């Protein structure tokens, strides 16, 4: 039987990682000499550390409370640059449009891209626009790439977490995923919750000021939610992680929606939230710096790094459970 | 009635230009402070001219004689960088995959991306993979972005053509478009012709050596073919252009296919062919440099720039006709 791509291969979970590690990376071969790629890559040129990143956006619906596909596409790429402590210099934007899309929708998305880029302080310098026939795409896909420059004195990487590091989170989780799902399915939760999409580079700049090289790892929580991000970091850094369930900031509407839908908020997507792994001596200073920014006003410490073991959650009653990586899709087309 | 996106809006012709100028660029607003964007944008950083470019690939079929969607995605972005006299430093690649695509197809495309990148001497430094449900995309779309560095002593731009400039072309036209169309429709011409997809940056490096700042404009001939490229350059440079029909290198199988299909080879897509606008005193030296490379072995002079007027073709019998920009689509999903 022919092996085929499944929806779960796009989840950001275990199937995604398998597809990348067993199909896409081996395909690249010598074109990716360093092995597994990071979400944003450092390219050293004439003494300045440049950073490149790309993401494709296929969110359904195109418009939802708190944002739209254009805003996501700008913030997502700005944020993947920021996770390498890079400030954005320039963005590119490509559209794949299905024939028949109302021009007004495209106009709204382009205006969102423009407004989000201006707000993030980064120009859009070049673009591309392709149109495919009816039924060959679902309305509109937006793909951004970004060039950034790394701040001096910081070098966070997915492989940088160390035993003893404090695990900090910049704000509440689950808002984006619940908003998109609820809007798509008409569940009504979107009256009480909106996407958290926002650029995180200014927050990161303040964290770098406070923490410098003590900022070991930064990661924005996207498709696979907090659980996938923690598992990816644990694997890349070869460490264990322990999280306090009671410390996790889950807004009440997200908690209610997750209960009704049978979802775990730790797996729900976010678009404006990061985790930071920080050397213990610098954790308080970094947390204070985060709390003094609008994006990090609700930042809290949620856990600690162990020298080995799985990603564990300690519940309120003191028991521990493993917070595993999902195999496949929790919610398709969430970003 | 709702205005809607038409297939022709993706043609690279007049409708494409209208969509970009009237919808997409006004949307970007202050995020695109310099007005119309170029295919690759120069970003000045710490004294070195960096260049960024992006293109989305939606070609149908995915595989065809001479290449596939992965090869195109690498060459297309390398070539848009090269048109600004930039050598590629790093690429990003994003896939949008339709659920159900055979994994083997994805493996082949990833291997093509890898092999093409290695052959062009550029690493793929980061990527993204999204999956959408059956019917929400047509098999596979590939989106690349590229970072390059401009060679010193060259600054070609679409607005740089000057009256008196020689118009040079690097090789035969029409092969890519006829190959893809014929493969898709099962017309049989693909037995005699293959896509011309190839990287052009090494050719450009030799041209820069020979011509330097006398290289006023470089343009690769993609979707809209030679005719669209010449019209875009004429508009951006505010000049007229006159081409000798008899000088146009049209391979015999392309000529035969175009006659049977009622196509004009000047509008058929290419993926490995460029036009150069060169100050008259440097034209012979640049042409000689082109001819000494594999990519430019069949380079010829095809015309001259006038100080105003349309893009004209002088036919063998001495009459002149206007080579206009097509309104919409000649061949959809050709790249
Ligand atoms: N097609 C690909 N080829 C090579 N590497 C890839 C490909 N797609 C993804 N990757 C790599 O896999 C890792 C995980 O990518 P992923 O897209 O899940 O991260 P992300 O961009 O932070 O998340 P999201 O896309 O949800 O915003 C990244 O380091 C990325 O560079
Ligand atoms: N969505 C967009 N927003 C802003 N500018 C755009 C957009 N799409 C295209 N452009 C600009 O329009 C111009 C023409 O783009 P086009 O894609 O036709 O050029 P190309 O990449 O050389 O051709 P091809 O895509 O056929 O390879 C470019 O300068 C590009 O930057
Ligand atoms: Mg991302
Ligand atoms: Mg990320
Ligand atoms: Mg393009
Ligand atoms: Mg191009
Ligand atoms: Mg081009
Ligand atoms: Mg990604």
From TrEMBL, chains A, B:
Residue stretches making up the PurM-like N-terminal domain: 38-149
Segments crossing the lipid bilayer: none
Species in which this protein is naturally found: Paractinoplanes hotanensis
Top-rank lineage group of the source organism: Bacteria
Protein name, UniProt field: Hydrogenase expression/formation protein HypE
Protein family per UniProt: Belongs to the HypE family.
Boundaries of every PurM-like C-terminal domain copy: 162-308
């Amino acid at each position: 039987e022919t092996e085929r791509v499944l929806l779960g291969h796009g989840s950001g979970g275990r199937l995604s990682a398998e597809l990348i590690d067993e199909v896409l990376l081996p395909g690249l071969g010598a074109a990716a000499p360093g092995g597994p790629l990071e979400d944003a890559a450092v390219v050293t040129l004439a003494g300045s550390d440049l950073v490149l990143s790309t993401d494709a956006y296929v969110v359904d619906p195109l418009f939802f409370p708190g944002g739209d596909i254009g805003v996501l596409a700008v913030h997502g790429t700005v944020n993947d640059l920021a996770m390498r402590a890079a400030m954005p210099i320039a963005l590119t934007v490509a559209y794949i449009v299905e024939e028949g899309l109302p021009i007004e929708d495209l106009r709204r998305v382009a205006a969102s891209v423009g407004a989000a880029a201006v707000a993030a302080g980064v120009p859009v310098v070049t673009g591309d626009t392709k149109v495919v026939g009816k039924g060959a795409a679902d309305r509109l896909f937006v793909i951004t790439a970004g060039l950034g420059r790394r701040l001096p004195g910081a070098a966070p990487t997915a492989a940088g977490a160390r035993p003893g590091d404090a695990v900090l989170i910049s704000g509440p989780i689950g808002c984006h995923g619940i908003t998109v799902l609820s809007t798509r399915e008409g569940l009504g939760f979107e009256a009480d919750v909106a996407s958290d999409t926002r650029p995180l580079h200014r927050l990161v700049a303040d964290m770098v000021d406070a923490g410098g090289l003590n900022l070991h790892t930064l990661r924005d929580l996207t498709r696979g939610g907090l659980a996938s991000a923690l598992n990816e970091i644990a694997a890349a850094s070869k460490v264990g992680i322990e999280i306090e369930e009671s410390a996790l900031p889950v807004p009440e509407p997200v908690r209610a929606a997750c209960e009704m839908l049978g979802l775990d908020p730790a797996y729900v997507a976010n678009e404006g939230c990061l985790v930071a792994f920080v050397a213990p001596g610098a954790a308080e200073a970094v947390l204070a710096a985060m709390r003094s920014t609008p994006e990090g006003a609700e930042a809290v410490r949620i856990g600690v790094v162990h020298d080995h073991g799985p990603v564990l959650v300690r519940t309120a009653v003191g028991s521990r459970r493993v917070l595993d990586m999902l195999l496949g899709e929790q919610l398709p087309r969430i970003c």
